Amino acid sequence: MNDFQPANRYSHTAMALHWVLGLGLVAMFLLGLYMTSLPFSPQRLKLYNWHKWAGVVVLTLSFVRLAWRLTHRPPQLPLRIEAAMPRWQHVAHHGTHLALYVLFFAVPLLGWAYSSAAGFPIVLFGVLPLPDFMPVDKALAELIKPAHGYAAYALAALVVLHVAAALKHQFIDRDGLLTRMLPGRR
Description:
Elements: H1 12-36, H2 42-71, H3 79-84, H4 87-118, E1 123-124, E2 128-129, H5 138-172
Antiparallel strand pairs: 1-2
């Protein structure tokens, strides 16, 4: 029996949200690393604006993904895979997913809070001013800034862990678990 029949695969919408958000998070993290290494310049300011715009898009996609997840149960793990996984892997699987979802929201919200507290409003795509998340408070901004960075690093570490686990299932366990999230034939 094929473990990866349509009932055991994610929907096309879930797959699209997964891959778009995943690629967006990687791009945001790399952009954040690059832009913070630049000296103060018009280029750095432009990249900071792009980073903020992308953060708002990631936050929006996170809300869409969470709404989808809450209204569409994910497919159950195939029984043979579930039975082969030790208890700690089940705990890690659920804990990592929960932490990822928390950080999908925490990282951009901390960035928005920092931008607001620092007095740098977000003007989405240069045309739509977004409300400040909090009043300007430079001392608070200095507290929020590292929190945004630490949360971003934590999210990056969880993304790496998630990818490593998927690759382990694909290439070491050879259980085909990755095919549940890959577009293609149903």
